[in-house]
Write a structure and sequence with these properties.
about 65% helix; mainly alpha
């Protein structure tokens, strides 16, 4: 198992990934805005000056990325032929595409997905908070932490002295064993 700091870093990386994935999902799956409906007589709400058959190929330099994407989508999605004219004088008689049962189902599913994404982000954030709370030193003052460090340094010095004494004792025992083995070997020759 990794130490707490590594777990915290992994959790933060995962949270960043979840943020990115959530934003990407919302950007790609959000229901589109309703398009303007045809006005009376079947004419569209936007007017094109007579004799202007060209469509702009590039947006103006001050356009935002969202406006650029919308303009590009509108230019590429233009129908090849004119649709039949609306025979109904009242444009409200036709239901806009955003109110179809399929779109309502997609919209409600999108809202459920948003809630689930938000819940996942909140759970990950709570996990990060728990990891932070479990870090040593959290909740203690700087003086308490310094005192704890001094105590740990003293314990480390004591442990080092014990290790040095044990190494010295090991060397003495090793010399005795070598002397005994050397005496046995010398007696046979």
């Amino acid at each position: 198992m990794a130490d707490r700091l590594t777990q915290l870093q992994d959790a933060l990386d995962q949270l960043a990934t979840q943020f990115y994935a959530s934003l990407r999902y919302i950007a790609t799956q959000a229901p589109s805005l309703p398009t303007p409906t045809a006005g009376p007589g079947g004419k569209s709400a936007s007017k094109v000056p007579a004799g202007d058959d060209t469509t702009p190929t590039a947006p103006p330099p001050a356009a935002t990325p969202a406006a650029t994407a919308a303009a590009t989508a509108a230019a590429t999605a233009a129908p090849a032929s004119n649709p039949p004219a609306n025979t109904t004088a009242d444009p409200s008689a036709q239901s806009p595409p955003s109110h179809t049962p399929h779109n309502e189902k997609a919209t409600s599913q999108f809202a459920l997905d948003q809630r689930e994404l938000a819940r996942d982000l909140i759970l990950q954030q709570q996990q990060i908070e728990l990891l932070i709370e479990s870090l040593p030193g959290i909740g203690s003052s700087e003086r308490e932490q310094e005192a704890r460090l001094r105590a740990l340094e003293a314990e480390l010095r004591d442990a080092e002295l014990e290790r040095a004494e044990a190494a010295k004792g090991r060397d003495e025992v090793l010399k005795r064993v070598e002397a005994v083995v050397g005496g046995i070997g010398a007696g046979r020759v």
